[in-house]
Design brief:
The chain is of the alpha/beta class. 45% of the residues lie in helices and 14% in strands. The protein has two domains: 243 residues, TIM Barrel; 68 residues, Putative flavin oxidoreducatase, domain 2 (Non-ribosomal Peptide Synthetase Peptidyl Carrier Protein, Chain A), CATH 1.10.1200.80. The strands form two sheets. An eight-stranded parallel barrel has the order 3-4-6-7-8-9-10-11, surrounded by four helices. A two-stranded antiparallel sheet has the order 1-2.
Length: 327
């Protein structure tokens, strides 16, 4: 088998490797993405952004568009259900500081699906095709789509949707091997990723249940996919990309970092959040990240309990340092 971790071209954008941080609302923001790039992700995906909110010039939404030059290449993911609007927003974003424009056809959240957006688009292949066409025509950069296996177990139409997307000009398709009805439960169906790969000639990116080097290796062998989106396993663990690289270089799965290194990363992450969002919001957002970072470590339960009462960086720093000393 050819080398599993390798450079990957998405249209005219060349990634130094094919390990990608998946788009995750409330996670893959400007504070976190560069940490994953530093640890070996070939590209990162931004949080999904509402095309409608962008068209309304929503200030909070515009904050989601910020990118650090050093973190590129990055992919911006839009969600929406109106072809004309999606094309218009794609055109307005032409000068944006990102490299790839992605259409979200996978979000399972009821509010999004109820509006006919996200994974609801998989129920309407013709509409999905019209949206993709409008985005490709106006984006001025590679357009990709992220889909699920299907809307439910009886309608696993990912190969059909991927083929339509390819015919409409997308540069790559990412496939999460779960249906919308599964949300994030159960096991991802990698067989559907293989079927998509057999159906299209553009790069196929596999997503779902990738947690380490061996799981990436298994997905590559079972599906033949061209790249790998790492999602929830990267929460609180930007080192996962480094460990995957190490696995393919040495055969060693590797271990999570020592508490002292973990503390340094958590402090860096907290500072970045506060710098971007202010102390009030930054400290509160860091609470969930701290829980993810310290899962499986000694004294993590006590830290989680205490940090939920923290309101300033000074307290957060003291808690992190005390945790590292005890763990």
């Amino acid at each position: 088998m050819e080398q599993i971790i390798h450079p990957l071209a998405i249209g005219d954008v060349l990634l130094e490797n094919n390990l990608i941080l998946a788009p995750m609302a409330g996670v893959s923001d400007i504070a976190f993405r560069p940490l994953c790039r530093q640890k070996g992700a070939g590209m990162t995906c931004m949080e999904m952004v509402s095309a409608k909110a962008l068209s309304y010039r929503n200030r909070n939404t515009k904050e989601l568009l910020k990118v650090e030059e050093g973190e590129r290449p990055v992919s911006l993911q839009l969600f929406g259900s109106e072809p004309e609007l999606m094309g218009q927003v794609a055109a307005e974003l032409r000068d944006g500081p990102f490299d790839v424009l992605d259409l979200n056809m996978g979000c399972p959240v009821p509010k999004v699906v109820g509006n006919g957006e996200g994974s609801a688009l998989m129920k309407d292949p013709l509409l999905a095709g019209r949206i993709v066409e409008a985005m490709v025509k106006n984006a001025g950069r590679p357009v990709t789509v992220k889909i699920r296996a299907g809307f439910d177990e009886d309608h696993k139409n990912a190969p059909e949707i991927a083929h339509i997307a390819q015919e409409c000009g997308v540069a790559a398709v990412a496939v999460h091997g779960r249906t919308r009805e599964q949300y994030y439960s159960g096991h991802a169906d990698w067989e559907i990723i293989r079927k998509v790969k057999e159906k299209v000639s553009i790069p196929v990116l596999g997503n779902g249940d990738l947690v380490d080097g061996p799981s990436v290796e298994r997905m590559a062998k079972e599906t033949g996919c061209d790249g790998f989106l790492v999602g929830r396993a990267a929460q609180g663990d930007p080192w996962i990309f480094k460990r995957i690289h190490t696995y393919f270089e040495t055969g060693e799965v590797g271990e999570k970092p020592a508490p002292s290194e973990m503390m340094d990363m958590m402090l860096l992450h907290a500072r970045r959040l506060i710098e971007e969002k202010g102390e009030h919001i930054g400290v509160r957002e860091m609470r969930k990240h701290a829980a993810w970072y310290t899962t499986g470590y000694k004294n993590s339960a006590a830290l989680r309990k205490e940090i939920n009462n923290a309101t300033d960086f000074e307290t957060v720093e003291a808690l992190f340092r005390r945790w590292a000393e005890k763990s």
